[in-house]
Amino acid sequence: MKKKLAFLFASVFLLTACSAGPNGGGGASAGGGDSDAGNKQEGDTIKVGLNLELSGAVAGYGTQEEEGAELAVEKINEDGGILGKKVELVKKDNKSDNNEAATTTANLTTNDGIVAMIGPATSGAVKAAIPNVTKAQVPMITPSGTDDSITVSNDQVQDYVFRSCFQDSFQGVILAKYASDNLDADKAAIFGDNSSDYATGLTKAFTDEYDGEVVAKENFTKGDKDFQAALTKLKKTDFDVLYVPGYYEEAGLIIKQAREMGIDQPIIGADGFGDEKMIQLAGKENVSDVFYTGHFSTLAPANDTVEPFIDDFNEKYDKEPSTFNALSYDAMLMIKEAIENEDSADSADIAKGLAELKDFVGVTGTISIDKDHNPEKPLVVVGFTDGKESSAEKIEP
Amino acid sequence: MKKNLKYNLIWLALACVIYFGLFALYNGGFITIFTDAIIVNIGINVILAVGLNLIIGFSGQLSLGHAGFMAIGAYAAAILTQNNPTYIAFAVSLIVGMLISGAIALIVGIPTLRLKGDYLAIATLGVSEIIRILIVNFDELTNGPSGIFGIAQFSNWQVVFIFMVIAVLLVSNYIRSGAGRATLAVREDEIAAEAMGVNTAKYKVTAFVIGAMLASLAGSLYATYQQSVFPNDYDFMKSIDILIIVVFGGIGSTTGAIVAAGVLGFLNMYLQDFGSLRMIIYALAIVGIMIFKPSGLLGTWEFSIKRIIDKFSKKGDDQDASTNS
């Protein structure tokens, strides 16, 4: 009997004999032209993929980035396209799911034959998408994936991964210096989101760089609504600045509850604060002495492209552009610049063009891509009084 | 037993036919990276669904903790193959993940499986969330919320297919065994089963442990195909996704679980173009099935080779009878 059962299972494993190595059976083919050189541009259009969180938990970021990219494509096509060819945006929804972000990437690169991709919006989804863009040799630019390890992992630069936003370490370092030098804060309290890679990265960078003393550390989790207990603890501590690494949904409520509780020290955060909803959640009257690292500000325009961008955005969507709108707008224009510099819209050439991008004038600043595929551009520390931008200090990298 | 072996061999022959069909498609270049991802995800979902179906459909326990056990397998594979990317390390990680999941399921199962219905569901959901939160907080080992990526790709469609066949055969044979009959008796009427001398706690826990181990196996395959793991991939909604497959296919039908995994896998694939409408369409499809087929696509129906063989042999007997008369 045992022999028969052994035979039964052995015969199942015999199927593996057909495997030709780890990707046996010839493997899956990467569509869209010569697999050795990525996807080729074909026909009268240049296909750019949008792999974004259009539904699900972080659809707020994805839909904003969709708007920015759409506006950029509209402007490009109005001006005659790129190399005389129109740009076609191929949109796919990854439903805020990392696994889905990977399959969406495969769909765009193989079935749709895109030559470049914008997105995903979150670091986890970007990491999940990396193997498939690498297999297909199609460059991707994430407008808001800030985790340091996206572009460089184990000291290895990811050949096809770029970003138009800052990485966590850069923002954390700038905020630490800003707290010490500009806010004269010798003691900092940190109230961070310990459930997100974004916030933990920012916390680490700030803690490593800060000259003063971190006197208190409290945590919250994404989705929390009541922060009274932790804020009560913090209130009893003597600190000069409250650092809140996290996203606007929680940051808005933290600011509101902190101010209502009588915590009047400056509150600082990173680009996750950069949304109008943060002010709505906190209440205008509570958003004073609040500072965050942003990508652009009307008070300190990076260059002459900012005003027209704001006007165009207002006209198309009837609202003010957010950080996420601006970052995806720049991502699309970076692709355009790379194509024009290389005089080719083939994916491998676009990747080369992006890696060598220098002094590109975008709405979030003049961008040069460094050796690690991160943008070197100025950062703006935006200050608020009564829910309105009252100061903006441009800091060069 | 001989008869059982005969049917198993027929099932294996059928699996071989499907395998070589896929093999030909891959070698012919008909399968893109995208189609490959869909096929692999369907295979992984089949393993998850047959495991959960064993718990929900066959032993009658409502578990919402499947994602937690999947996370254990995924992280076991990620951690153990990170610094030693060899097939031996991968094989060890599969076993380690399954053993840890089995042990946790056993420890959790003994007290919680005394509970029934909603209470059990909440208890298993709690366990799953505890596992996920431990993963987030043990950042020295798991890299916390940032997850682990750049994992070597040990899983491909072949590896997943083989384990899927093993999982389906394992569950099917378990259900046909003495222990399986006892498990079904517990589902139908626990008091009556106990009165007949069936150790109800033992069989409920056994089903729970097997289901958890299969979830862990699926998690390991998922991590080493996806090449990345993140704690947020294994939240409450992941358990619900697996539950949807089981309910959609028909609670208590292994065939239903396989069909539902395939249908929902391809539905998901086609919905990528629909943006923000996608979730609405997906939800409507599921609601539609529940309205028109409340017991799921296949109810409790099973595809049976035995039935087909019996049908043909009966036809043969009828023909013999008519020619002899």
From TrEMBL, chain A:
Pfam families, A to Z: Peripla_BP_6
Keyword Transport found: yes
Family: Belongs to the leucine-binding protein family.
Species per Swiss-Prot/TrEMBL record: Tetragenococcus solitarius
Gene3D superfamilies for the chain: 3.40.50.2300
Domain annotation Leucine-binding protein: ranges: 45-386
Keyword entries, A-Z: Amino-acid transport, Signal, Transport
Name used for this protein in its record: ABC transporter substrate-binding protein
SUPFAM superfamilies: Periplasmic binding protein-like I
CDD domains membership: PBP1_ABC_LivK_ligand_binding-like (cd06347)
Leader peptide range in chain numbering: 1-20
Automatic annotation (TrEMBL), chain B:
Listed InterPro entries: ABC_transp_permease, LivM-like
Locations listed in the record: Cell membrane
Domain of life: Bacteria
Membrane topology: Multi-pass membrane protein
Keyword presence, Transmembrane: yes
Residues spanning the membrane: 7-26, 38-56, 63-81, 87-107, 119-137, 157-175, 205-222, 242-267, 279-301
The keyword S-adenosyl-L-methionine appears for this protein: no
One Pfam family from the record: BPD_transp_2
Keywords: Cell membrane, Membrane, Transmembrane, Transmembrane helix
Record protein name field: Branched-chain amino acid ABC transporter permease
